[in-house]
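Hi team,

As requested, here is the filled-out complex form for the adenosine-5'-triphosphate run. I kept the field names the same as last time so the parser does not choke. Let me know if anything looks off before we queue the next batch.

— J.
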Amino acid sequence: MLEIKDLTIRYGEFLAVDKVDLEVKPGEIVGIIGPNGAGKTSLLNAVAGIVDPAGGSLSFEGMALPGVPADERLARGLVLVPEIRGIFGMMSVHENLLMGAYLCRDKAEVARRMERVFTLFPILRDRRRQLAGTMSGGQQQMVAIGAGLMAAPRLLMLDEPSIGLAPLIIQDIGRTLTALRAEGLTILLSEQNAKLATAIADRIYVLQSGRVMMARSTESLLEDPKFVEAFLSLA
Ligand code: ATP
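And here is what came back:
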């Protein structure tokens, strides 16, 4: 579904992503884990069309991405839920969700998508008139994921959804993402929280200083004492 080869991203002289290969197949949850500054956000931004890569090839469902504007990628179902939620704090929950569907002109379809989000996150229905900025961190993340779903993703990319959230809320997010995958959604997840990523992903890429250090099934990583010690012993 998503194929990335030799992806290189530079900020001036600084090499943030160095010849990364990554693949996501339909129906998978793929995790990218790595510390602060590893290049996770840069990689997702390059896929979404927010950052221009210096080199490499990216394709989504057979469409070469370089040169395709971000809104066209979104229209094709390539949806990014950005780091630190990226919601509009001074707008209501309902307005934030509508923003997610801004490319859709069919009101009945927008209503169907909204209903699906409210079924997934019932609290958002109860609080639909509340200003999003006044909600708890976990609820704001629900708004952010909900807005992403309103764009009718084929591949949902989430940039560190667990950031700043309590362990129980992080578990809830994990359950939600697993439920979405069971409905057929494909997910690419960037996380510093290796516990969440290993709990839900089929395969994991470990990124460090812009390079892929490991790319393996979650099952095999969890059997690797070096991985467990480096990423899970303190989690
Ligand atoms: P974080 O968890 O902090 O978001 P990350 O793994 O997502 O980390 P990136 O945000 O992609 O990493 O950053 C990779 C590197 O590129 C970091 O060293 C960062 O400082 C640098 N970087 C990111 N964006 C820019 C920018 N716009 N200009 C210059 N350097 C940048």
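Two things worth flagging: The longest helix spans residues 167-182. Strands lie at 2-11, 14-24, 29-33, 55-60, 63-64, 78-81, 155-159, 186-191, 203-208, 211-217.

Thanks,
J.
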